């Protein structure tokens, strides 16, 4: 009997530990209407204050709504995000780095967010769009993704490291980082007062993107290219040489996150196109079907990369550094 009680206690304890390691987003404040859905789905649930957004779930605001969500890891709040109207974010699968630190990964699918995040030795937070990955220490910033495949990141306080397909760089307060799929990223400084006006900054930058009326055409070109790029990524991810190269592995993993959010943004654009189009219904259905072929193709490539990464993660052993000398097993 004692053995049974001990076993039962261990099961309860292990389950409680698993629950305590959970990462989620919780809606703290909501003004208007928002929805929660699973990745790649069109079925939605109405969101309310206190609603929990779990891993692989998306929170969307409608055209007149705003919400504030907290980022929670092990029941601790490590940051907050304000979603602007017509915006959506995805909580990716949280994973553990090689030193068992938790890596919290969030993706900006559409629209704009304002965020304050404080990472730590135990919790590292990154936010991804289709063209940029933002790595956060302690920062207050704004981030916007446009369907012309451009991401704006405006930093108010702190320091951000940003990675794109072209480069990696840090930005300082009042910097605006602009990353486009079609050209190298650039940084502009807007230190014109003590309180950075994000609305003005983004309106200035959006005006410079005068060809946004063909945004969808640009995005479709981007998605067609993504298939080729991700197929190449799969070849790299499957190489046995990368099993001992942690930097290469992490780089592939980050690119993988950008591919996931790019595909989800594409799915949302297709869905919205079908819903809002004034074209003949049969015509738009056929058009959407042709676009979904590209979406499905990328899903298969993304899933393939996920399997490669999971397999590699079990094989990689992080080297031990002692006085800058690598000790190998």
What's the arrangement of secondary structure elements?
Blueprint: H1 2-20, E1 23-31, E2 34-38, E3 45-46, E4 52-53, E5 57-61, E6 66-73, E7 76-83, E8 88-91, E9 95-96, E10 102-118, E11 123-128, E12 133-146, E13 150-163, E14 168-171, E15 175-180, E16 183-189, H2 198-208, H3 215-237, H4 246-276, H5 281-315, E17 320-322, E18 325-327
Parallel strand pairs: 10-11
Antiparallel strand pairs: 1-4, 1-6, 2-3, 2-5, 5-8, 6-7, 7-10, 8-10, 9-10, 10-12, 11-12, 12-13, 13-14, 13-15, 15-16, 17-18
Structure description:
Helices cover 36% and strands 36% of the residues. With 329 residues, it is of the alpha+beta class. The chain has a 16-stranded mixed sheet that branches. A two-stranded antiparallel ribbon has the order 17-18. Helix 3 runs antiparallel to helix 4, helix 3 (215-237) packs parallel to helix 5 (281-315) and helix 4 runs antiparallel to helix 5. It is globular. The protein starts with a helix and ends with a strand. The relative contact order is 0.09.
Helix content: 25-40%
Catalogue the unreliable spans: 4-21, 319-329
Please provide the ordered H/E string of secondary-structure elements: HEEEEEEEEEEEEEEEEHHHHEE
Average pLDDT level? 76
Structural class: alpha+beta
State Rg: 21 Å
Estimated share of beta-strand residues: 35-45%
Oligomeric state: single chain
């Amino acid at each position: 009997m004692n053995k049974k009680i001990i076993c039962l206690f261990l099961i309860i304890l292990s389950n409680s530990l698993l629950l305590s390691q959970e990462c989620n987003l919780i809606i703290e404040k909501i003004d208007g209407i928002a929805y929660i859905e699973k990745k790649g789905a069109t079925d939605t649930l109405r969101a309310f204050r206190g609603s929990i957004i779990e891993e692989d779930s998306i929170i969307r605001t409608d055209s007149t709504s705003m919400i504030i969500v907290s980022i929670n890891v092990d029941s601790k709040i490590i940051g907050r995000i304000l979603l602007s109207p017509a915006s959506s974010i995805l909580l990716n699968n949280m994973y553990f780095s090689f030193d068992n630190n938790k890596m919290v990964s969030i993706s900006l699918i559409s629209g704009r967010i304002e965020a304050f995040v404080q990472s730590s030795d135990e919790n590292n937070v990154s936010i991804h769009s289709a063209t940029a990955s933002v790595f956060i220490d302690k920062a207050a910033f704004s981030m916007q993704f446009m369907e012309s495949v451009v991401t704006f990141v405006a930093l108010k306080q702190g320091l951000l490291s940003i990675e794109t397909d072209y480069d990696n760089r840090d930005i300082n307060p009042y910097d605006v980082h602009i990353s486009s799929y079609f050209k190298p990223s650039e940084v502009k400084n807007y230190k014109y007062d003590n309180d950075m006006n994000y609305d003005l900054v983004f309106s200035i930058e959006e005006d410079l993107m005068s060809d946004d009326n063909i945004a969808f055409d640009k995005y479709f070109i981007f998605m067609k290219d993504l298939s080729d790029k991700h197929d190449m990524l799969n070849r790299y991810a499957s190489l046995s040489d990368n099993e001992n190269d942690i930097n290469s592995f992490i780089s592939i993993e980050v690119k993988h996150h950008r591919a996931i959010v790019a595909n989800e943004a594409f799915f949302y654009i297709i869905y919205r196109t079908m819903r809002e189009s004034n074209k003949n219904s049969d015509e738009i259905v056929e058009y959407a079907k042709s676009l979904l072929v590209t979406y499905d193709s990328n899903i298969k490539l993304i899933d393939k990369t996920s399997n490669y990464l999971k397999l590699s993660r079990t094989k990689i052993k992080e080297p031990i550094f002692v006085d800058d000398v690598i000790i190998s097993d």
